[in-house]
Specification:
This protein is of the alpha+beta class. 36% of the residues lie in helices and 37% in strands. A 4-stranded antiparallel sheet has the order 4-5-3-6. The protein starts with a strand and ends with a helix.
């Protein structure tokens, strides 16, 4: 079991898998051609994208819960990206912690 506490307040408690499942972050990893700053600018301007970055030739997106992957793929293809692979990713515990702390700060 893992507990996330910030300033004496319990933010979450559960198994690592429960915490990952309950965090609002939805990760997608995309491999393809023509992934560049222009694409990042396009994606970061979308309301359904929480964050976007390119790491080791892969585009990593963290989406808001209402983010629709097919719409994002359509936008990427429309921007000239050649998509090779799309995979749902998993957030690690550090990212779960950061998301929970960020949400608590916003409250």
């Amino acid at each position: 079991r893992v507990a996330v506490i910030r300033q004496g307040r319990l933010l979450a408690y559960g198994s690592p898998e429960e915490l990952r499942r309950n965090t609002d972050s939805h990760r997608v990893e995309i491999t393809g051609h023509a992934l560049d700053e222009r694409v990042l600018t396009l994606l970061r301007g979308r309301p359904d994208v929480r964050s976007a970055l390119i790491e080791e030739g892969r585009l990593r997106l963290d989406l808001h819960p209402d983010g629709q992957v097919p719409h994002i793929i359509s936008a990427l293809v429309g921007a000239g990206v050649g998509i090779e692979e799309v995979r749902r990713g998993h957030v690690n515990l550090e990212e779960v912690f950061l998301t929970l702390v960020e949400e608590a700060r916003a409250d």
